[in-house]
Design a protein that fits this description.
By secondary structure, the chain is mainly α. About 85% of the residues lie in helices and about 0% in strands. The longest helix has about 30 residues. About 25% of the residues are buried.
């Protein structure tokens, strides 16, 4: 059983992030642009880490190991997100808090859409 191509979600997030930051810089200002970048990275990095941990194990014989890896990945993702927000708000000055959360939510939306697309794609493949 091949692992799902979850790396494509991270790539899509990064492809959207660069023009989004440039557009924010042009329409708003530099503070909003790097705040958006920081918030987006708080969303992208933990998700990429989760994907690498959670999908390391697969197959029916390794179901229990895969479930443990998914739980560990989710816990790590949560802790990395909390630490990321803490680091951003403690270190980055000046900061646009609204842009931080907008960047995070934008990457979360791409992650949810990408996951939905991958699930749909795998279901189609399973039906044929």
């Amino acid at each position: 059983m091949a692992p799902p191509p979850v790396h494509r979600i991270t790539l899509a997030q990064l492809v959207v992030l660069v023009p989004l930051c440039l557009l924010t810089w042009q329409l708003a200002n530099g503070v909003s642009a790097y705040s958006l970048l920081c918030g987006a990275l708080v969303g992208v990095v933990p998700q990429a880490w989760f994907a690498s941990i959670a999908f390391r194990r697969r197959g029916a014989r390794r179901a229990q190991e895969a479930a443990r890896a998914a739980y560990a990945g989710e816990l790590g993702k949560f802790l990395l997100s909390v630490a990321g927000f803490g680091l951003v708000f403690a270190v980055v000055r000046p900061i646009d808090a609204l842009a931080v959360f907008a960047g995070f939510l934008c990457m979360l939306g791409i992650q949810m859409y990408g996951s939905w697309r991958l699930l749909r794609e795998r279901q189609r493949c399973a039906q044929t």
